[in-house]
């Protein structure tokens, strides 16, 4: 039986259909068991070969494919575009071992259309021994991405005047499907005035985010600040979104330091920093503990550690800590947001991009309450509207924007040209 940590949160009436493609029998067996212990998943096929998966794709009709990178007959990088060509709306999660080469290949897969990537435990014994963090991350990503994919297919069928009824794979006994529940339209964004911003950092506030997720979204006034730092948090879909944002803010990077926490394991964040540096045409790297923060540079939190900001006699510095995960994440966005607020006060611009979960929402609320500016990505352009959605429903945002409008908004805020 699944533990409470993996409680069902999807509102889809259809089980999320999952295909597992991995040449390891142990991996296929363990991952399949984990998913089948969840009431909202159905493992429709498992394959040791990418070629076999491609042949079965149109019969199994998965919502999510968990795809290994290294396989003997066809690697994941080769198979991915073929999978997306046959089934454009399927969500592909890349699962790979934790090596620099596989990190680079995983980043290539994200550029080719994969939705997310996960680092598998170093050995099958680690995997079979429990690996609760990997299990949690895998289950929640399958759930978030599968719900999104299933809804898109159901909406397409509804627009065509029919219902979506997938063909059953012969690899697993069929079970009945109920008709999909039509999606509920989001409430219109309401603008609400707020009290004059405080000039000192707010004390940490415990917020029950789950109880606030049905609250109407209210937009704060955009504070007239001159940001001393730009802090960005992201997760699922984040590497692609970050590349769009940093490309759009090239001209203001020389004015502020940019600090980014993206949910990724070690090696993956190293490659991400290299890619973002090229996109932004600016220095971008994983910082070391105690490193002085400089304007015109981009700092990416190293995988497996939290990145915080602290004061020093020479100025703000990076603090790399090995503290426990926050919101099941390490690195996590909230520690970066909270510590940045202590250093920069209200002169802070926080951006929350696409990602599952609610990491960053509490920190963003504290920044907003202290007088800083918070911008979130909108639901339509997010791969998963978890982190930005939680931030929006807490009432922390002064703007909720499509991805391609976030960069220009940052430029306006940094240059003092916002309306």
TrEMBL record:
Keywords: Chemotaxis, Cytoplasm, Hydrolase, Phosphoprotein. It is an enzyme of class 3 (hydrolase). The keyword Magnesium does not apply. The modification 4-aspartylphosphate is found at residue 68. This is Protein-glutamate methylesterase/protein-glutamine glutaminase. It comes from Flaviflagellibacter deserti. The keyword Hydrolase applies. Residues 17-135 form the Response regulatory domain. The active site is at residues 235, 263, 359. Its EC number is 3.1.1.61, 3.5.1.44. It catalyses: [protein]-L-glutamate 5-O-methyl ester + H2O = L-glutamyl-[protein] + methanol + H(+); L-glutaminyl-[protein] + H2O = L-glutamyl-[protein] + NH4(+). Involved in chemotaxis. Part of a chemotaxis signal transduction system that modulates chemotaxis in response to various stimuli. Catalyzes the demethylation of specific methylglutamate residues introduced into the chemoreceptors (methyl-accepting chemotaxis proteins or MCP) by CheR. Also mediates the irreversible deamidation of specific glutamine residues to glutamic acid. One of its GO terms (molecular function) is protein-glutamate methylesterase activity.
